[in-house]
């Protein structure tokens, strides 16, 4: 590694360095409590996935270039250069991590290993070693933002097709998916998939909401990739759209990281106050049910239902009770997973890992705790408000023969609504 | 156009939800030679924006993106 590249890579740490990171670098006691908290370490038994070990890779560079002891006696203080070997280790550690932050929850010092690994990803990107797939997905999203007119017709055509399905479900020929509606109260930013639009549209229309649909998707692969500038640009697409339409509130879909990106990170990335209220769709649906704006009936969902807290919505987003209240509103046969809420096990599918084939074996092995929990619950239906979690759990479901139906929460709600149209097919 | 184009790889992406159709095309583009063509069939309408956006941003080319009944058929040429 030449000196210029070394300066670039250590410069990434220097730029990210603040009191918080310095504390994380200095304070780890190597107690290894985090090993029992990490689904990936527990599921694979592989030392490289131990959270303290992942963070230690950044700590080794830190010791070499940011401490005198590591600079002068590197062997004694386990200080290392960010050479090819270290960068290879860093790649596996950082991109395999789902960012669930369960290790932080159990760490006596609350060391945020996921945050340390965001520094690792920034180093990898600076070294030209960022994950190619995540980078491509991020770039495609930015391209859609920069060339929105190119996709206008196909987007509107897609919405019109989904609108027909919504009308069949509601039995109301006037149900709509409003597009580019100025003065709407809510901008709903769905995912690219129709399954996140259809049930939401049914609920918004039945609630009599003044809403409009975004031309962009809420998923943010720039966040998973580890490039905050790309992540900001991807989010900015619908923030600008919301400003143009003059809405009051942005509602994000059943997606883990989309909520956290909009609610918790965008202000810091853009350095401007968020001009809108950000809500998760389940917060809205809970309001609609409790205020009587939509009606749901019990008895229409068959089987025992359980609920998985996606890490980015639950432990990292603080939304625990509204989804449970919704599920309990549609069934009396609810059982919680053990443990749950802040202590919920990560399913192993977050952080963009489902898009990275190279980690497939690790990903599926790391779902072992989730499989145990699901089996022990005795449930036949799982409600799960995160796309990545659902993809992972559906794969685990098939692999381990769990016999579960895996549902979006809003699909459960629509199935429990007394509508005049035909019942939707659950996807 | 699909009748006249040599297809190097067929991808059945029916039932996959976005962005997985785009992910699968990206994962498989390296399996065809430069100049080769993937024919991909998806059912999620989001693919109609996702796959062309991916192709444009990666320097590949979508020769065809057509809706045929309830399916979306893409011919994607590997350019580099």
Structural commentary:
The complex is a heterodimer of chains A (about 425) and B (about 80). With about 425 residues, chain A is mainly α. Chain A folds into three domains: about 5-130, Fumarate Reductase Iron-sulfur Protein, Chain B, domain 2 (Orthogonal Bundle); about 135-290, no CATH class; about 295-415, Rossmann fold (3-Layer(aba) Sandwich). In chain A, about 55% of the residues lie in helices and about 5% in strands. In chain A, helix 11 links the parallel strand 1 (about 185-190) and strand 2. In chain A, helix 10 (about 150-170) packs across helix 11 (about 200-205) and helix 11 crosses helix 20. The model of chain B has no long low-confidence stretch (mean pLDDT about 95). Chain B has one domain: Translation Initiation Factor IF3, CATH 3.30.110.40. A four-stranded mixed β-sheet of chain B has the order 1-2-4-3, covered by helices on one side.
Q: Which helices and strands appear, and what pairs or packs with what?
A:
The complex is a heterodimer of chains A (427) and B (80).
Chain A: H1 3-16, H2 19-27, H3 39-44, H4 51-66, H5 68-72, H6 84-96, H7 102-106, H8 113-126, H9 132-146, H10 148-170, E1 186-188, H11 198-206, E2 211-213, H12 221-225, H13 228-245, E3 249-252, H14 256-270, E4 277-280, H15 281-291, E5 305-307, H16 321-330, H17 360-365, H18 368-377, E6 381-383, H19 387-400, E7 405-407, H20 409-415
Parallel strand pairs in A: 1-2, 1-3, 3-4, 5-6, 6-7
Chain B: E1 9-13, H1 20-29, E2 37-42, H2 47-58, E3 61-68, E4 71-77
Parallel strand pairs in B: 1-2
Antiparallel strand pairs in B: 2-4, 3-4
Question: What descriptive keywords fit this protein?
Answer:
heterodimer; A: 427 residues; mainly alpha; Fumarate Reductase Iron-sulfur Protein, Chain B, domain 2; Rossmann fold; four-stranded parallel beta sheet; 5% strand; B: 80 residues; alpha+beta; Translation Initiation Factor IF3; four-stranded mixed beta sheet; 4 strands; globular
């Amino acid at each position: 590694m030449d000196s210029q590249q070394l300066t670039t890579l250590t410069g990434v740490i220097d730029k990210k360095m603040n009191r918080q990171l310095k504390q994380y670098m200095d304070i780890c006691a190597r107690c290894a409590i985090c090993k029992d908290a990490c689904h990936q370490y527990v599921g694979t038994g592989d030392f490289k996935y131990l959270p303290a070990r992942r963070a230690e890779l950044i700590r080794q560079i830190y010791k070499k270039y940011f401490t005198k002891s590591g600079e002068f006696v590197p062997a004694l203080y386990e200080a290392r250069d960010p050479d090819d070997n270290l960068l290879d280790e860093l790649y596996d550690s950082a991109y395999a991590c789902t960012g669930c932050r369960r290790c932080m929850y159990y760490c006596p010092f609350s060391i945020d290993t996921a945050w340390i690994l965001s520094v690792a990803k920034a180093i990898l990107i600076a070294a030209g070693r960022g994950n190619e797939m995540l980078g491509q997905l991020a770039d495609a999203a930015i391209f859609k933002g920069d060339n929105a007119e190119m996709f206008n017709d196909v987007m509107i055509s897609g919405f019109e097709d989904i609108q027909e399905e919504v009308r069949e479900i509601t039995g109301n020929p006037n149900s709509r998916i409003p597009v580019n509606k100025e003065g709407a109260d809510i901008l709903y930013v769905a995912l690219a998939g129709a399954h996140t639009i259809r049930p939401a549209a049914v609920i918004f229309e039945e609630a009599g909401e003044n809403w409009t649909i975004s031309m962009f998707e809420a998923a943010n692969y720039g966040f998973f990739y580890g490039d905050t500038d790309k992540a900001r640009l991807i989010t900015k697409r619908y923030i600008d759209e919301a400003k143009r339409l003059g809405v009051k509130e942005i509602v994000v879909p059943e997606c883990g990281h989309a909520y956290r990106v909009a609610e918790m990170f965008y202000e810091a990335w853009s350095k401007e106050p968020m001009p809108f209220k950000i809500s998760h769709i389940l917060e809205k649906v809970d309001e609609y049910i409790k205020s009587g704006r939509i009606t749901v009936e019990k008895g229409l969902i068959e089987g025992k239902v359980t609920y998985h807290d996606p890490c980015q919505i639950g432990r990292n987003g603080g939304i625990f009770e509204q989804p449970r209240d919704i599920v309990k509103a549609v069934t009396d046969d609810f059982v919680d997973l053990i443990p749950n809420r802040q202590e919920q096990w990560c399913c192993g599918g977050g952080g963009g890992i489902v898009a990275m084939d190279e980690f497939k074996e690790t990903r599926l092995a790391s779902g072992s705790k989730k499989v145990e929990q699901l089996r022990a619950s005795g449930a036949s239906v799982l409600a799960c408000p995160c796309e990545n979690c659902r993809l992972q759990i559906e794969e685990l479901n098939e692999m381990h023969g769990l016999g579960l139906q895996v549902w979006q929460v809003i699909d459960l709600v629509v199935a429990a609504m007394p509508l005049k149209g035909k019942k939707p097919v659950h996807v | 156009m699909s009748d006249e184009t040599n297809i190097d790889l067929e991808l059945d992406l029916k039932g996959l939800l976005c962005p997985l159709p785009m992910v699968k095309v990206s994962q498989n583009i390296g399996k065809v030679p430069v100049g080769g063509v993937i024919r991909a069939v998806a059912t999620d309408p989001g693919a109609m924006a996702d796959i062309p956006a991916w192709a444009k941003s990666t320097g590949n080319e979508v020769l065809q993106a057509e809706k045929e009944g309830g399916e979306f058929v893409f011919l994607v040429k590997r350019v580099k």
